[in-house]
Amino acid sequence: MRRYDKKDFPTSEIRRFLEPGPIVLVSSAHRGRTNIMTMGWHMVMEFEPSLIGCYIWTENFSFELIRRSRECVFNIPTADIAATVVRIGNTSGRDIDKFAEFGLTPVAGATVKAPMVAECFANFECRLADARMVKRYSLFVFEVVKAHVARTPKYPRTIHYRGDGVFMISGRNTSRYRRLFKPGML
Fold first, then answer.
1. Which ranges of 56-133 does DSSP label H, i.e. alpha helix?
2. How many CB atoms within 10 Å of residue 106?
3. Cα dihedral 41/46/49/53 (nearest 10)
């Protein structure tokens, strides 16, 4: 096995090595206002019930929409709309209707009032399951109450944030290590 020569690194930038998954578009609605935010800081917290934790900055327009409505949709975009995903993250829903501005289609959810984004590969309708860490850490814990996933492809080309404005598109899959894998252990 290779050993790496290491140097000191700023702790404020370690996220580029730990980003947990694909960039998502989080859509929300409250009292006639809707929004879409680009998010990279989320994590799976439990399988059954399916829980997702995420950080939402208090100054983000979505923060109050989600805190007050107690629901949202996690939408999984693919590489074909990567430029739109980045542009959404560079704007505020206080100033514009992001669905209209970026030509995205809002679709009514089956169980939540927040709209789904039709152009995304998957949509996970969520309800706030635990708000105890919102005030202190801006950490929301959601339960996925309904999931909608496209039939194909099996493995979509998702967008991942590497920090400092660098993104990665998911690449080639491998089953090379499958024989070593023990379900429930990783």
1. 61-69, 82-89, 98-101
2. 19
3. -20
Identify the structural domains of the chain with CATH numbers, from first to last: 19-180 (2.30.110.10)
Helices and strands counted in the chain (H then E): 5, 11
Instruction: Supply the pTM of this predicted model.
Output: 0.92
Length of the chain: 186
pLDDT in tens, 22-64: 999 999 999 999 999 999 999 999 989 999 999 999 999 999 9
Prior bond of 156 cis (ω within 30°): no
CB 36 within 8 A of CB 120: no
Share of the chain above pLDDT 90, in %: 76
